[in-house]
Amino acid sequence: MKKFITFITVILFTQTAYADGLGMRRVMNWEPLSKISEFNWNGYIEIKILDHENSFLVGNKIYNKTGKLLIDVSKLTNSSIIQGFGIDLQILNRIYKNGISRCNCQLADLSQYYRIKLSKDFTQLKSILKVLNSMDFIEVAYPLSKPVIPPTDIPPQTDDYSSFQGYFEAAPQGTGVFEVSSLPGANGEGIHVVDVEYNWHSGHEDLEKCESALIPNAGTLYNDNDFAYHGTAVLGIIFSGNNGYGMTGAAFNGNCHFSPGYTSEYGYNIARGITQAVASVMSPAIILLEAQEFGPNYDAQTYGGLVPVEWIPATYDAIRTAVANGYIIVEAGANGWEDLDDPVYSGAFDRETSDSGAIMVGAGLPGWGTSARQREWYSNYGSRIDVQGWGSEVYTLGYGDLFNPGDINQYYTSSFGGTSSASPIVTGTIASIAGILRASGSGSSCSNTSQNCPTGEICDYENFSPGRCISDTSISGTEMRDLLASTGTPQPGNTSENIGPLPDIESALDALGSTCGDNQISGIEVCDDGNTVSGDGCSADCRSNETCGNGYKDINEVCDDGNTLSGDGCSADCNSDESCGNGYKDINEVCDDGNTVSGDGCSADCNSDESCGNSIIDTGELCDDGNTLSGDGCSADCKSNEICGNGYRDTNEECDDGNLVSGDGCSDLCIDENPDDDGCSCSAGHKRGSPFSFFLIALILGFGFYFRKSCKI
Predict the structure, then answer these.
(1) Which of 67, 483, 486, 611 has fewest C-beta within 10 Å?
(2) HSE toward the beta carbon, residue 445, CA cutoff 13 A
(3) What residue ranges define each of the domains in the chain, with the CATH number in brackets?
(4) Tens digit of pLDDT for each residue in 143-197?
């Protein structure tokens, strides 16, 4: 850690954390998702409408942007449709646009998720799903499951059990949180952590930080002690007070928040819990996902086959959107003893093609010796697991097997476990790292009245006394993921069943202390060319080799989504965000003239060059059948649909006066009713002059004759 302390005041991570490094969005495959038992199905189907439909819900009907009816269950008995996230659409739109602007990556429009309650029984579920997934406007449809149950001192005096929290002792035993607790920010000062799960005991004596943790508009928590014990144990690892009794949390000076994934109003909806957290708690923040899902291999007898929550498409997209908005997501890897690389998952957990951006946590054996950090038998494993935490013998709050005086607000346990314990251990470690980064800087004293901090620093007088000048530095979720995986204590033994290393906070901090521009690649540097200038093949912060497709938006790039493919929201050369009107003709565009206005040679959606005969009805055209021939239902100039009565004289018409009335000079079949007239015609049709007009002509001619005769006399 000496290296880190040496450089603590010159850490170069001074910009806001962005979601650089967020990989490709998953291609949704509905069939593995459909493998659910009747007992575990909650009666709903969730659907995702393709983003470009811009669909909206009216009653029990879904329409697209043109007003076309897509889905209607209004006439089905006991059936209904609700918006999938249960969150105001303006908020969802703001989160979506902010994420796109920050990461230039492919995100899903969360407003296009819906939940359909059907009156049909389970035997018809598969056929209904097959029909829905065959519709060209639906990206994916799948069944929804019931939730999986997740794995100031008051008399009498509670003992201090913090000495039993080996998971925070120095590496290789633990993650080393207690070893750095004296560093500024190490106890979570200024850091926000949101737990997404079911419930907790808000009145627990050792959770004063979490007494009012429930976020706004959360809904009514599910009232079950099994759920509440779990949440209490999780929060205890992170937020227990440094008060001389009970436990000591990693971020006891941090900010505790709780966003339920299961409520009376919205049911089981982890995706909503994530997105409501994003809507309520400003980034950068850490969101912990303490839940798991039934997978296609689920066995009700053994509980095997449980999988991480990102298995569900809506949850996966909610995670990606949160990461793109600057949040660090920590996700329990689940207790299903499953190989997440198994083909049954259709690549859902393949980071190369389906990166949610979350830090996924496996469960390892605790302690020292040869067995430490090996996979707990029940933990899921595979290439997608990033890091591990202790999966057993975890001392924390709740349950009462360690201390139980009869008051649930004084319950403590010595046997919390699973990925449920591993994930908050990792989360607490991240909170400590984030706090130290945030508090880095000059460290000069300041106050709310005298904020004399160096340029680029702010005065934090809310979390430090006296106030402290800090850099307010943060790194993205994908950067934190890479940092922990590259600096942790390795997993021993059978690493083919990968659960990743155990985070080592001191090694991580040493890596963050590397100096960009010293011509030595160290820590989390990707390159170092001896300067801090961008545009020369190594970025100014040494975190990018400035190649398109590396997931890092460089100075000469408009976007970089981690690949060199077009059509996914970032062009193959990283020079276009593939939005119409940016002046760059993308692979899915016919033209792009730098605006979204029609009538100037490029349509508002960039799909037409506005020429007649291109099969697109543009502004100023009545029809366009893909050619410039007349007589086929669309005129050569695309101005007429060649229907009698449209006021346009087509090639097969003698006249067209804009109506289908006979007796006015042009018949209802557009035949000239006066074929022997003087030949005067116009596009509106031939019409014989009235008797008055003939009289007038005769009068003029007669007058002319008389005038000439008079002149001769």
Answers:
(1) 67
(2) 2
(3) 21-439+478-511 (3.40.50.200)
(4) 999 988 675 334 555 677 788 888 999 899 999 999 998 889 999 999 999 999 9
